[in-house]
Amino acid sequence: MFFIDISDPWILLISIFLVICLIYLGKEAKNAYVPLMSLIVFLILLVMHGIQFLILPAGYDYLASSLAKCMLLDFLLIFITYMAYLWIDDVEAKAKKKKSIDNSLDWFWKNV
Asked: Which residues of 78-91 are buried (b: 16+ CB within 10 A; e: fewer)?
């Protein structure tokens, strides 16, 4: 069974490096759509890992723990990229002087 194992340390480091680069690029360009791409990728990976976990054949029980780790990392990276998306959306809204989607995290952005 083929699956993208993001629990592998090298793949995890590469994906974290790419996420950090996209967040930095989005901040410098003041464009919230840049980190949104990584959020969509991790959401697709989470759905893919969830489906693979649900339809795991009986002979591949050893993959269950790897898939569970991958889903946990997917959730963690989704949280990080979502927070980065909200932050860059706020930066973009202030730069372009437009209303942000939601200002409920203003207390958090002032500390960042």
From this structure: bebbeebbbbbbbb
pLDDT tens by residue, 65-76: 899 999 999 999
Q: Are 69 and 7 in contact (CB under 8 A)?
A: yes
Q: Is the dihedral of CA 8, 9, 10, 16 positive or negative?
A: positive
Q: Tokens in use for 12?
A: 């995890």
The reported pTM is 0.84
DSSP state of 59: G
The span from the CA of 73 to the CA of 89, in Å, is: 24
